[in-house]
Amino acid sequence: MRSQADITRGMPVTIEVDGQMIDSFSGETLLAALVAAGHMRLRNDQEGQPRGFWCNMGTCSECFVSRLDVTPVRRIRACLITVEDGMRIATRSISYD
Amino acid sequence: MTNSIHHYDVAIIGGGPAGQAAALVLDQNGARIAVIDEQQRPGGQILRQPPQEFAMAQSMKGKSYTSLKSQLRAFEALNRCDWIGGKSVIGIDRSGGTVDLTLASGDGITQVSANRLLIASGCYDLPIPIPGWTLPGAMGAGGLQALVKAQAVVPDGRVLLAGTHPLMLIVATQVIAAGGTVAEVAFDQRQSFLARLLIKGAGTALRNFGLMLDAASAWATLRRAGVPVTFGQRLSVIEGLNRVSSARIGKRTVHCDAVGLCYGFLPQSDLPRLAGLSVRWAQPTGGWAAEHDGWMRSSVSQIFVAGETSGVAGAPAALLEGQIAGAGIALDLGLIPMDEAEAIRRDAARKQIRVSRFAALLDRIADPTSALTALRDANTILCRCEDVTIGAVETALIQDSDPNSVKLVTRCGMGTCQGRGCEHMLLRLAAHKRGVGPNELRGFTSRFPVRPTRIGDLIG
Ligand SMILES: Cc1cc2nc3c(=O)[nH]c(=O)nc-3n(C[C@H](O)[C@H](O)[C@H](O)COP(=O)(O)OP(=O)(O)OC[C@H]3O[C@@H](n4cnc5c(N)ncnc54)[C@H](O)[C@@H]3O)c2cc1C
Ligand code: FES
């Protein structure tokens, strides 16, 4: 949920996550956009159990997702990356192989 | 790799209170500095700033933040100092006579070289392997707080804060101020234990009035908002199917959609250990703190340390260490006469006495040891990267109690986080098995790159 208390955000941008369009704002981290959209499950572990982010500061690697709109595809830590309009993201909670 | 390598007198890793303080002293004495941080903007963890594109009422309103905020403004006004934001330092190399740093970001690899290096990389949320802590919605309380204060985003639904560290009172009020819902703030400790420590340390607590006042006013805010603050009932299990849906606190089930786990912080030790700095086991949280002399010199020449990398003692202590390190480096580079450096050091050292007593009190209050001991469940994942359970580690320890052998056999600590999440617990388990203290064991080896990096970027 995005707080509405005393805040003006950047320009609206739209990103695609696992094929769905998600609203975000310029300057937001990708992780913040995912959490605001209720997208907490970012991958499955070896047993197929769901995982989400843990540290939100770049140390745990739980928030790794793939950025599909660049060549070659990059794996990025969602908590350190700022959203860009038209960004295409695949989480690891569904298989793209 | 780029060919143009920028050279500086001093490179500082970390734009938190410690790094800023050092930069201010060094800039005043004419040094050419670069400050590098994984975050886009300066501030460090305590003052993590909203994006430039946002206009937001300052979220850190408490009394204890005033001097930190004015230092941050002064730092941002420096015009000779290069701010290199949004890049992670992944390597340190001293073989060429200078200190050469490798930096990684979404755009690839760059390099920076300097005559002196200050590592002021701070700390991170203590990863606590409680049953269910891997479910989406369970997170470090600092990570939760950073989401609220720097992004103005709160997890949907009811947020539970649980642990031993009083910082969670403040995080809870920030969640509420942002329009979120706090289910409960649950302290492991009994209220009588906290009261006893506070009375014994009353003098220290009063001399650090700002911080105590912030905690007290946070508590009052929670009372007014009708949020239960409970004591003496430990969080034992986090439950849910696809994400968190409830948690067990003592004998109660609390319905919640997210949990912020607040058991303290571990020093960032990957870069110090990569550069060969000598470190000591940090009490009571665990992890490794970089050792230093009275000028914040590490055991390795050309490299200094400051702030929570050298032991978690709070932001005011980090700031003072940064000032001393700044003076120490300026002295080392011949930029400042001894008497001036000594005056800075003496002034900061005098103030350190007060803040270090408070840090010691907070350490005793927030000690996570009994939670870490009580919550040892064999089926719980300890190493999140490689899915290694506590039970698997305990089984491997029966054969061989050397932590590095257990790492090889089980893969615990071999994943992308390089053991930042699990090493402290593996060492505790190994130490318990051997009947020694974790400080007597050899920790993991820190390896280049200390942050996950695309191989193509490194060889490209
Ligand atoms: C998530 C979080 C939230 C916190 N919130 C509070 C709070 O509200 N109140 C409070 O009293 N204390 C808080 N703390 C404790 C707090 O970190 C310190 O008291 C204070 O910020 C320490 O200052 P420092 O300068 O030592 O480190 P920090 O402020 O942590 O600054 C270190 C900086 O180094 C950067 N860094 C680390 N490693 C690398 C690398 N390899 N490459 C590039 N950059 C790197 C980090 O991005 C960070 O900005 C928090 C801690 C964490 C982890
Ligand atoms: S959430 Fe830990 S690295 Fe991003």
UniProtKB/TrEMBL annotation, chain B:
The record, for Pfam families, names: Pyr_redox_2 (PF07992)
Q: What is this protein called?
A: FAD-dependent oxidoreductase
Q: Which InterPro entries is this protein grouped with?
A: BFD-like_2Fe2S-bd_dom_sf, FAD/NAD-bd_sf, FAD/NAD-binding_dom, Metab_Enz_Cyan_OpOx_G3PDH, Opine_Oxase_asu/HCN_bsu
| A GO term, aspect molecular function | oxidoreductase activity
Listed A to Z, the keywords are:
Oxidoreductase
Highest taxon in the source lineage: Bacteria
Question: Does the keyword field hold Oxidoreductase?
Answer: yes
Q: Does the keyword Oxidoreductase apply?
A: yes
Family annotation (SUPFAM superfamilies)? FAD/NAD(P)-binding domain
Residue ranges of the FAD/NAD(P)-binding domain? 8-320
